[in-house]
Amino acid sequence: MRSESEQTSPDSPAAETATEATAEAPTENGATDRAARLAVTVFPVLVLVAGAWGLASPGTFTGWGTNVPYLLGVVMFCMGLTMTLTDFKGVAQRPWAVGLGLVAHYVIMPGLGWAIAHALGLSPQLAAGVILVGCAPSGTASNVVTYLARGDVALSVSVATVSTVLAPLITPPLTLLLAGAYLPVDAGSMMTDILKTVLLPVIAGLVVRLVLGRYVDRLLKVLPWLSALTIAVIVAVVVAGSADAIKSAAALVLVAVVLHNGLGLALGYGAGKLGRLGKPASRAMAFEVGMQNSGLAASLATAHFSPLAALPAAVFSVWHNVSGALVAAWMSYRARAAEKE
């Protein structure tokens, strides 16, 4: 079991993220740590600016909706390029912790999405969108935020990897079960889309990394920013597609997203504590449960529901990075304070 003061170096982060590659082989208070903090700070600002652009000039992105799955494929290919076989070895070495993280992720967030949509009386489109966010795999910046929180990054990488690989088998039936009462859900078509836009690009990236590793290593510092720009474009397209409805629905969607993310972080940490994983691992669990692959949710919502249903994913993409950075800073402060006692 890791001690409270132990900080795990995130080797080859595997989750879909705009910042994970910046966390490779960090040194305490070193250049990588500063780069990771910069990325976590800049990414939500970049996404917020993109969303504002889509809202102010929706005509700029007319007809871009069909490109969202391809843009997501670029993000997932970049994720695959950051992966190594070590990420999968970590799963075999800690099956209990990874299994608990996987169950917590795919039980807590989908359940919260359904409960929040019901409690707030959301329209069918928004309700389906919130639930779809909850049914997505672990997502944006979870690995690097775990690192900044002085959490167990190895566990974070393992949970993110498994949740992403299993997404084609888990996300569609969960969405059908929980969102089917609001809108028709074609689980088979959704599974095919996840295979094409998530799993195949990830596998392709991993293969390229294995074959051309030394060349890919030179690009690792560029990949997170390429992912960031791509996710920002996805958000701009999603917001532009539902610009007319945002003025009336934005406040309610923001409340739903804040509740969804906040409760996910808290319950994820609680799951780690109940599983007696220790504080660093519990911090990792918080972010692996509370942070979602909102790019995938936006892509699926646009393709299978409507641009309005993709709005919760676009808002989540901004908010969970802001909240994640704030919670990570608080957790890091508490951990450092405990070391001095």
TrEMBL record:
Listed Gene3D superfamilies: 1.20.1530.20
Keywords attached to this entry: Membrane, Transmembrane, Transmembrane helix
Low complexity biased stretches: 13-28
Region (Disordered): 1-30
Biased composition (Polar residues): 1-11
Location in the cell: Membrane
Membrane-topology annotation of the record: Multi-pass membrane protein
Domain of life of the native organism: Bacteria
Name by which UniProt lists this protein: Bile acid:sodium symporter family protein
Species of the source: Streptomyces endophyticus
Organism classification: Bacteria, Bacillati, Actinomycetota, Actinomycetes, Kitasatosporales
